[in-house]
Amino acid sequence: MKEIKKIFAFNFFFMFLIIIPVIIPYCQSLGLSMEQVFQLQAFFGICVALMEVPTGYMADLWGRKKTLITGSLFWAVSATILAASQNFYHLLGYMFCAAIGTSLVSGTDTAFLYDTLKNHEVPREKYTASIASLQFFELAGEASASIIGGLLALISLKTSAWAFAFVMWVPFIIALTLREPIYKKMDRKQHKENFHHILNLFNKDNILKFSCLNLLIWGLSTFIAVWVFQKHWQLGQISLGYFGIIWAVYNITVGLTGKRVEAWEKKYGPACLMVVLSLLPIFGYLGLAWLSGWFGVVAGLLFQVSRGMTHVLFQDAINWRIDSKYRATVNSFNSLAFRLGFALVGPAVGHGIDKWSMAGTMTTLACVFLALFFIFTLPLIKKIKVMGGPEKKVTPA
Fold it and tell me: What does pTM read for this prediction?
């Protein structure tokens, strides 16, 4: 199926983030502190949050292709601004344009994939593998870019930034060639009724509601760690030349883990997977708190395994339950909650690292996520068991 291959290629290059494995040193080279780095991410999160639902709604109303074209254009412009940045305020401009691009693409790519699968009458049991493949191509792109970015950083951090800017125009070109999938669009004149129906989806389906909450919690648990890793490596005296290689290994781990989720869910059941994906970040934070150097790098792998399981298990559990005409909007609601969550927590984490210590901040995060496991994940596990035992799938065919 040509269009599915194209959306995989789109995501591969959209996530070809050459600058990411050295983004913290790059920001520091422009005079930023760790607190300012997290402030930038919080600003990005707030901007995305403000635009997530309107852009997702737009994707459901006006089409997936137009939204992907516009989003990838803003993303390419943002990468160019990043490469030309000289200070904190320039980086705010980068974050603003990147937020528009991210909010437009976020959820739309998944909706495009599911609608295309439906158009081609692909069996329901193949959907989990497809979402895993979408994630795999994203992470394969990031892993490949990580090695290149790390090597280019040995020349200069600006070299990595300009290479990133150049490659980010490729997704825009791919988006221009996509063919719009056929799906039933929402009524453009009944906005109130459309949102009322979307909100009712969460009220009527407790599994959907708790799946969204857990996607938020455990997505945040691994995303916060992503912005801690490079500082942790610096404190552990890991050479900058290894950053790209480590980042590539991390992303390959996520991709390979995601590929195994479907088989693991069938063999062990979703309840077991939820326990594992929840406990891994908790132990990961304890590892970052008390281990340094290469031992800390190994502890970071726990987050990557959890990330691979979380995205595939919960994204598929959520998306198959939603009508096509509402899918991009619901995905945007999830992303909205995620961005707001990071905007609230991120700066506090950066402040804790700067003012207190890495060990104390990481231990605190481990305790917080342990509490969230008991409050939000255990109730979902119990609901699944009531549905039909531990072998019952979250994502039935």
Answer: 0.70
